[in-house]
Write a structure and sequence with these properties.
three-stranded mixed β-sheet, 5 strands, CBS-domain, elongated, 5 helices, two-stranded antiparallel ribbon, single chain, alpha+beta
């Protein structure tokens, strides 16, 4: 299975904003949409950052609550790891584990086409395991 399968199941909608919005606006979006990250894009649509709940907590803890009025570009993660539709779930799990992040923007030809979370990967792996178990049960019972 690959990223394309996940996007087919969950869709390609991604909550994005530009780097000039305030961190407070990002916090409101995270709460409103019940999500863990917002992808930050240039006006051209290219990914220039990502801000997660962890980034928000780190910014407030190290710079105080006044950071909420500053542009998100001051505290977003700028070195964004991305993936492609054809990347395997195994590759995603390895990247997410090694680098300790939970969200990967999906980028094709320089443009954002989706977002995959660790929850999406786990859900897909569970579905795969259930399909394999069902196939084995069918094989065993029907010979």
């Amino acid at each position: 299975m690959n990223v394309s399968t996940i996007l087919q199941n969950k869709g390609s909608d991604v909550v994005t904003r530009t780097p000039d919005v305030t961190l407070n606006e990002i916090v409101q979006l995270l709460n409103e949409h019940k999500i863990g990250s917002v992808v930050i894009v240039e006006n051209s649509g290219t990914v220039c950052g990502i801000v997660s709940e962890r980034d928000v907590v780190n910014a407030i803890a190290t710079r105080s609550g006044s950071v909420l009025d500053e542009p998100v570009s001051d505290c977003m993660t700028k070195n964004v790891f991305t993936c492609k539709r054809e990347d395997t779930l195994e590759k995603l799990m390895a990247e997410m584990t090694e680098h300790r992040f939970r969200h990967l923007p999906v980028v094709e030809e320089g443009q954002l086409v989706g977002l995959v979370s660790i929850g999406d990967v786990v859900k897909q792996r569970i579905a795969e395991a259930e399909m394999e178990a069902a196939a084995m049960r069918d094989y065993i019972t029907t010979g």
